[in-house]
Amino acid sequence: MKVMTIFGTRPEGIKMAPVVQALQLDESLESVCVNTGQHKEMLDQVLDLFELVPDYNLEIMKAGQTVEELTARVLAELSPIISREQPDLVLVHGDTTTTFIGAYAAFLQQIPVGHVEAGLRTNNIHSPFPEEMNRQMVGRLATYHFAATKKNKMNLILENVEACRITITGNTVIDALLQITEKPHDFPENLKQIFQNGKRTILMTTHRRENLEELQHVYRAVNRLVRENEDVQFVFPVHKNPIIRQKVLKEIEDTENVHVIEPLDYQDFVHVMKESHIVITDSGGIQEEAPGLGKPVLVARNTTERPEGVEAGTLKLVGTSEGKIYKECQELLSDEAAYQKMAAISNPFGTGDAAEQILNFIKEEFKVKAPSGVRV
């Protein structure tokens, strides 16, 4: 049996790495790995970290490329590869342009699609944009749905997906997270100095397209928090989007307690998250990862497709309001009981065996037998 995995962004690479590793280690399966290159440098770092070498690297990233141009290029490049390889199953992850077009390209050739991290929904097609619509369309194209949680499964059932097509696996990002945190790690000198000063660190990331017009409010909350808490510092790896960088230059006050740095490779980022006290983010994956390390997360969005975290208490939605972000963060900084209440909650997004569960499902569904002479 031949299984093709398709990904192209850093978050996809991180979350698909454990799946690709599991496929490659299983001698009863043939693995074909395709990297569209929707992200370039950031994804290359992930591939090196997990020691993955794609069979195909399309390198479709292009400066100033519109979503429409990206969509057309991914479809044009992927279709002949799928036609040549004729996999029995195509696996895609999440909600990117690569995800949607990978599923669509497979569908056009009548090859079944498995959707890893299926069933996330805000049910607002403009938030996150365009990810929410991407994931909904993949939900219609996929034959098999690997959902992280029961709520994700219920979302799919409400969209008339048959329950027998849905498998709850937990999220593969926890597999990746645990794999990386178990490795010894030494920070580069700039990060080492930051974490040796004894201050409580707040890790912040911002990149959501729908938040671009509101980011100044988030950054003003940062200024306010460091002015009023001398023992608090921010570490802020800034996204490469030039609009975000312009807003950071304009709004973030020049202070020794706000460390504006370049994007981190995944290994450094995971260990920064591990050393941090609180996380403020509009990212999706970090909402799953940080609770796995016992870190309270303030989500700088008005909606989240991960309500399990909000319900469990590991996440708080704070939007992009300066006042709301300041208030909720200040409470965690000043009220130890409130902090511990969030930090101690077990992660609702899995225990680190998602890739194994996906592999087992595939082998059972397709009745894959071990090659002669190989024990199972």
Automatic annotation (TrEMBL):
Question: Molecular function (GO) terms listed?
Answer: UDP-N-acetylglucosamine 2-epimerase activity
* Alphabetically ordered keywords of this record: Isomerase
What EC numbers are recorded for this enzyme? 5.1.3.14
**Residues of the UDP-N-acetylglucosamine 2-epimerase domain:** 22-363
Kindly report, in one word, the top-level EC class recorded for this enzyme. isomerase
Leader sequence range is none
Taking the record's annotation, the residue ranges forming a coiled coil are: none
The protein's matches in NCBIfam families, at most eight in alphabetical order, are given as: wecB (TIGR00236)
Similarity field: Belongs to the UDP-N-acetylglucosamine 2-epimerase family.
Protein name (record): UDP-N-acetylglucosamine 2-epimerase (non-hydrolyzing)
Q: Which organism is it from?
A: Alkalicoccus halolimnae
